[in-house]
Amino acid sequence: MNTVFPKKFLWGASSSAFQIEGAWDEDGKGMTVADYNSFKKSNIQADTKVASDFYHNYEKDIELMKELGMKTYRFSVSWARIIPDGEGEINQKGIEFYNKVIDKLIECGIEPFVTLYHFDLPFALVEKYNGWESRETVYAFERFAKVCFENFGDRVKYWQPHNEHNLIVRVEERINIYDETDPWKIDKMRAQMDYNLCLAHALAVNACHEMIPGSQIGAAVSSSVTYPLTSKPEDVFAARMNDNFKVYSTLDMHYHGEYPGYYMEYLKKRDIMPYMPEEDKEVLKKAKMDFIAINYYRTNCAEALPVDEEHPFGLREGTVDYSIYGLFRMSMNPNLKASEYGAAIDPSGLRVALNEYWQRYHLPIIITENGLGAHDVLEEGQVHDNYRIDYLRDHINACELAIQDGVEMLGYCPWSFMDLLSSAQGFKKRYGLVYVNRTDHEELDLERIKKDSFYWYKEVIKNNGVTK
Ligand code: BG6
C-alpha cells in the first residue's frame, strides 16, 4: 500500500526499565532513584518491585511484539542492573539479561532502540556525589555508556543517552533534591545538573561514534509547543521563551555545543552560573547527534509574568510546567480538550513540533513516546480502548502531514507497548497496547491481554500508515 511513510519507517513501541522490569533487586541489581521514589509511595500505588514483571516474561512479551509487527522496540537498560553502584563492578548477570532481550528481539526481526538512562540513576551515586551535581557522575555515566556500547554495540545501532534530560532537571524528586528548600540553591543545583547532563550526553555521543561503526545516537526530549495565551506581543514573547527554556536551550546545547544567549543571561542574572570549564567545549562541539527523538504528549499556553517586589527576575514557581518571573507563566489551552488525567490533547501541535524541530536542526526525527494515559477497563477478557485508537490515529495523521510538509521522519513509537508503572498514578493510569492484569496492590496473574488498540495498530504497521 502506498502511504507517505518511508518504506523502512520504524513503526515500534516504547517502555523503560524501571516501569516494566520489576526484579528490582534480583541477580545483583542495585537500587535506583526510581526505586527509592517509588518505595516512598508503595502504600498508595504499585512500586518498582514487580511492575509488569518483564524481567521474567521478556520472551513471551517479545513474541507479542513480533505478533504486532513491530519494526523497532525502544526500551531502556537499567544502569544499576549493569553496574549496581553506578561506577564499580560490572554485574555479568545484568549484561546477560540484556543480551537475552536483544537476541530475542533480533530473532523476532525487531530493531533494538536503546535508551541508556531513563530516570533511574543508581542510588549509590546520589549518596556519594548528589548524583548529577557532580562530574564524578558524568564520568560514571560515560563508563556505563562504554560498557553498553562494548557489550551490545555489535547488535544495537540506535541509541539515546538520556530520556528527557530537559524534563528530569525540572523535577526535584527525579534529580534527588530532597531536603533543600531554598529556591535559589535548588536552581543553582539544577543549573549544574543540567550542564553535567549535557556533558554526559556529549561524551556518550562521541564514544558511540568511536566504538560502533554505523551507529546512530540522538537526544530524546520531552517536547514543548507553547501557544501565546493572547495575541499581546508580550504573551507571544513569553510563549517563545517557554519553549526556549523547556526544550531549545537543551537541544541547542546538544547541537551547537553551547547554551544560547538568553539562557546564559538568565544564569548570570539569577547568579547560578554552573561550572563549565573551557576544555569541555571541544567535547561538546564534537558531539553531533544523528537524529532527534521527540516524546510528545500535549501542548500548553503561556503569558508574560512581570516581576514585582516579592518576585525578582528569574524566580521559578512549579516543577514540570514551571513559570519564571520576568519571562513566562504557563497555563492550559482553553481551546483544547484534556485527557482524564489533565493533559491537553493536541495532534496538530505535533505537526507544529515536527516542523519546528526539523526547520531548526535538519536532523531526522523519531517519536519515541506518544500516548494516552487512561483508566482502562477489562471486560470479559477484552479492553475496548477506542479513545486510545482515536488519539493514536490523530497523532499518526499529524506525522503524515508533517512528512508532506517536508519533515524527515525515521519512526514512530507509541508509549507504551504494555501497561506499566506510571510515575504519579501507578497502574491506575494505563498507556499500553497490551493490558497487564494487575492492579496497584494486587499482582493477580499478570496476564498479557491484547487491547483493541493492539489489533488496530497492527493494521497500521502492516499498511505502513493509517488507512481507516
Ligand atoms: C514521559 C516519560 O515523560 O512521560 C515516561 O518518559 C512516562 O517515563 C510518561 O511514563 C508518562 O508520564 P506519566 O507520569 O503519566 O507516567
UniProtKB/TrEMBL annotation:
Membrane spanning residue stretches: none
SUPFAM superfamilies, alphabetized: (Trans)glycosidases
UniProt key word Hydrolase: yes
Pfam families, A to Z: Glyco_hydro_1 (PF00232)
Gene Ontology molecular function terms on file: hydrolase activity
Top-rank taxon, per record: Bacteria
Gene3D superfamilies per the UniProt record, alphabetical: Glycosidases
Keywords, sorted A to Z: Glycosidase, Hydrolase
The UniProt record lists the keyword Cell wall biogenesis/degradation: no
Stored InterPro entries: GH, GH_1_N_CS, Glyco_hydro_1, Glyco_hydro_1_AS
Active site: 369
Recorded family membership: Belongs to the glycosyl hydrolase 1 family.
Name by which UniProt lists this protein: Glycoside hydrolase family 1 protein
